[in-house]
Amino acid sequence: MNKVTISNNSNYKIDENMEAMINASDLNGPVPINEPERQYYFIKKARNYVDELAKELGRRPKACSIAFGCQMNARDSEKILGVLRCVGYDEAEDEKADFVIYNTCTVRDNADQRVYGRLGYAGSLKKKNPHMKIAVCGCMMQEEVAVEKIRKSYRQVDLIFGTHNLFKFAELLCYMFESDRMIIDIWKETTEIVEDLPIERKYPFKSGVNIMFGCNNFCTYCIVPYVRGRERSREPKDIIREIEHLAADGVKEVMLLGQNVNSYGQNLENPISFAQLLAEVCKVDGIERVRFMTPHPKDLSQELIDVIRDNPKVARHIHLPCQSGSTEILRRMNRKYTKESYLELATRIREQLPDVAITTDIIVGFPGETDKDVDDTIDLINKVKYDNAFTFIYSKRTGTPAASFENQVSEEDVKRNFDRVLKAVQENAHAQARKWTGTVQRVLIESINEQDESLVTGRMSNNTLVHFKGDKTRIGTFADVHLDECRGFYYMGTEVGGV
Ligand code: 5AD
Ligand code: SF4
User: What is the gyration radius of the CA atoms in the chain, in angstroms?
Assistant: First the structure.
């Protein structure tokens, strides 16, 4: 879970042009129909409500936004915070705030359960602070049962919205201030992409950048296509412009985000491949590292491998979710590749990009999975020699095809096979990590070490962490670090140079 709080000294700076557009909105005139002008109008209006609240409280109201789940949600929470900051909310260290927004995830059941727990806690806080408002948004809110449950059993919630209408958060905020009732606004689908809204970044030196939204793959276990809708790509010029702004603002590393980045750009008026976009992003001055998440193995092109090879700015890390190593399970998952074709791709990547780390996602316990299927997964792990992997227990998602498949696997079998898979993952990951001992790697310094304040933590291009002597002034800069000793998944190192 990523907790993002608004801080007074945070990186949110309102763009001058945007501020001018907001100020130019005429609150006495008709509400604009076009976006983003419509949201600028509501931002201006919400500022008045927040100012009134501030007068009543005798201080600026505080907000806290909590994101569950993936990088996409973390980025969405930065958009929510951007609007909140823009309308005049201040920092809140935790949920003891005047406004708490939960951005939910529903990819697995445990994420759902955590949200209900947090809503209960927020309800108890609201009893002590009658000014407090609570909003819930994100993937889980695209499911009718979840909204119904909150509507009935969590009356403390003031505002519910979904993934498709996040761009109109400023508008919803105004409705929330104008009403005493719970506001629910969920869209089933959208084709709209609204550009140029405020964003509050969590880190000054790195940032996610959405390149597309939604997913068309319909893997049979996955709820994402139902809650995030059909694939929509942003225009390359909008993406490049955003990245140029980020670079001008001191960002060194960007991560291009999409559920299936390989199919980026196919439905644009002027189609462009993801590989072409990646090459363009690498040309932006000031951006020194480019990551991307997530490619689908079924259509990771040779063109993309070529672009990675030819552009040292592209991080040496490919996250390539296999989900299973059994061709029969992959067929029933609707993944559209086989164990052999996946292995051929991974082998080609290893040959042509020898310094690239390959990581993956694995699901254990998909309906009908046998011990023999899990043997295939372990065989794939040993052959690809993954640098790391996220291993998940299959979670039945209502509304997906796999939820009604026969032969749901018993908890006992899942547990046993999960442990077998985890062991194989860890053995390979340890062996892979050790490979770089004694080399010098360029790292982006991200933070002070949590255990030892005399150390900083840097991230290598291949995503491995290394700890070495340094202080907080170095955060956001690059350093060349000698990898002295591998400790499991990370390194201890010594700086030999840097910028
Ligand atoms: N159960 C377990 N894991 C899932 N994932 C997606 N849906 C499910 C599910 N129903 C995992 C996949 C995906 C990652 C983001 O989450 O491995 O790659
Ligand atoms: Fe889900 Fe498959 Fe789309 Fe990934 S590619 S979001 S696993 S449906």
Answer: 23
Whether domain 316-435 has CATH 3.30.750.200: the reply is yes
User: At a CB cut-off of 8 Å and minimum separation 6, what does 148 contact?
Assistant: none
Is the pTM of the predicted complex or chain greater than 0.70? yes
Any residues with CB less than 8 A from the CB of 219 and at least 6 apart, and which? 323, 333, 334, 335
Confirm or reject: Cβ of 44 under 6 Å from ligand 2: no
Q: Which CATH superfamily is domain 440-495 in?
A: Nucleic acid-binding proteins (2.40.50.140)
Pocket test for ligand 1, best of 72, 105, 106, 108 (most atoms within 8 A of CB): 108
Nearest atom in ligand 1 to 361's CA: 17
pLDDT tens profile 144-168:
999 999 999 999 999 999 999 999 9
Cis, peptide link before residue 294, omega less than 30° from 0:
yes
Say yes or no: CB of residue 204 within 6 Å of ligand 1. Answer: no
**By CB neighbour count within 10 A (0-12 exposed, 13-18 middle, 19+ buried), where does 283 fall?**
exposed
| Residue 90 CA, ligand 2 centroid: distance in Å | 36
Going by DSSP bridges, is the β-strand pair 2-5/99-104 parallel, antiparallel, or unpaired? unpaired
Cβ of 321 below 6 Å from ligand 1: yes
Q: What is the pLDDT of residues 210-259, one digit of tens each?
A: 999 999 999 999 999 999 999 999 999 999 999 999 999 999 999 999 99
The answer regarding whether domain 2-185 maps to CATH 3.40.830.10 reads: no
Report whether residue 139 contacts ligand 2, using a CB cutoff of 6 Å.
no
**Which residue, chain included where needed, has tokens 């727990």?**
117
Peptide bond preceding 321 in cis form (omega within 30 of 0): no
Q: What is the pLDDT of residues 63-99, one digit of tens each?
A: 999 999 999 999 999 999 999 999 999 979 899 999 9
Residue 222 C-alpha to ligand 1 middle, in angstroms?
6
Nearest CA to ligand 1 atom 7: 222
**β 206-210/253-257 pair status:** parallel
- Name the pLDDT band for 1 (thresholds 50, 70, 90): very low
Cβ neighbours, 10 Å, residue 494: 12
Q: According to CATH, where is 2.40.50.140 located in the chain?
A: 440-495
- CA 324–ligand 2 middle distance (angstroms): 14
Residue 217 CB–ligand 2 contact under 6 Å: yes
Other Cβ atoms less than 10 A from the Cβ of 2: the count is: 17
From the centroid of its chain, how far is CA 477? Answer: 23
Q: Is the CATH number of domain 203-277+284-289 2.60.34.10?
A: no
